[in-house]
Amino acid sequence: MSSPRMTTENESGSGLPNIVPAPPAKFVSDPNPVSSAPAAPSMIREYLNNCDSGAMADKSFAAVMLLCACSIFAIVAFIFGILVVHSHLSLAQFGWKFFARSAWDPVSGDFGAFPFIYGTLATSLLALVMAVPLALGVAIFLTELCPQVLRAPISFLTELLAAIPSVVYGLWAVFVLVPIMRDTLGPFLYKFFGWTGLFEGANFGVGLLTASIILAIMILPIISSLTRDIMTAVPNSQREAVLALGATRWEMIRVGVLRNSRIGIVGAIMLGLGRALGETMAVTMVIGNHPEISKSLFAPGYTLASVIANEFSEATGDLYLSALIEIGLALFLVTIIVNAIARLMVWAVTRGAPARVH
Amino acid sequence: MLAAGASAQNLNGAGATFPYPIYSKWFTEYSAAHSNVKINYQSIGSGGGIRQVTEGTVDFGASDGPMSDEQIAGAKVKVMHIPTVLGAVVPVYNIPGVNKELNFSGDVIADIYLGKITKWNDARIAKDNPGVSLPGNAILPVYRSDGSGTTYIFTDYLSKVSSDWTSKVGKNTSVKWPTGIGQKGNEGVAGMVRQSPYSFGYVELIYAVQNKMSYGLVKNAAGKFVKASTAGVTAAAAAAAKSMPADYRVSITNAAGAESYPISSFTWLLIPTHSTDPAKAKVLADFLGWMLDHGEAEASGLTYAPLPKPVQDMVRKSIANVK
Question: Is residue A47 assigned to a domain?
Answer without folding.
Answer: yes
